[in-house]
Amino acid sequence: MITRKALLMIFLICAFSSQSTIAEEGNRANPYSVYSDLLSSIFTEKDLERIVITSETFLQKGMGDYARKEIKGLREDTIEDFLSKNENPVTLKNKFVEDLKVVLVTKERSREILLSKKAEDGYGWEEFYKLYPDSQGITELSRVGFSKDRMQALVYIGTQVNPLSGSGYLILLHWNGKSWGNPQYVMLWIS
User: Fold this and answer.
1) Is 84 left (phi over 0), alpha (psi -120 to 50) or beta?
2) β-strand pairing of 165-175 with 180-190
3) What is the pLDDT of residues 14-62, one digit of tens each?
4) Distance of alpha carbon 108 from alpha carbon 102, whole angstroms
5) pTM (global) more than 0.90
6) Using CB atoms within 10 A of its CB, is residue 44 exposed (0-12), middle (13-18) or buried (19+)?
7) Which residues, in sequence order, are CB contacts of 129 under 8 Å at separation 6+?
8) Nearest to residue 110, comparing CAs of 165, 52, 59, 169?
């Protein structure tokens, strides 16, 4: 015969298990979880004071066929969601994990700084690094496309460090039950 104490224990285990599952499902469906896991894997090993990101999402048009051809294992529902979401940019909010120390900068402000004639290099990078010392440069992100089951996520990330150093990638990530990982990178550009 099951005692009250045993029933209470079973109830508590089920309640906490479902809360954990709900939290994991929330992370799995949250684009900021994808961004945070990706940025953490790229930038946390570097000695950065901050990560500077443009506040508006960006994606160069015409990426669908290239992604389908180059990214192994990319599911059609993932690329369709990615392309659909990226038809319209959105303004990012600083909902990244706190450890990342993200600074959001508008595209207008970054252009203003980088096209500044104050700097000797003629591009404004000296001015940029005076304003954002110990940063990685400036990073752009696309909106995140998900597979219907939220097991795949596709995102674009591009980072420019100076006029002659930067790169952009499409990245397919996989949900491992707790976080987004196992990234597959496909380079789109390099300078």
Assistant:
1) alpha
2) antiparallel
3) 443 433 333 345 678 899 999 999 999 888 766 788 999 999 999 888 8
4) 18
5) no
6) exposed
7) 135
8) 52
Full 3-state SS string of 70-87: HCCCCCHHHHHHHHHHCC
Residues forming a β-bridge with 186: 170
Q: Which amino acid is at 35?
A: Y
- In tens, the pLDDT along 172-189 reads 999 999 999 999 999 999
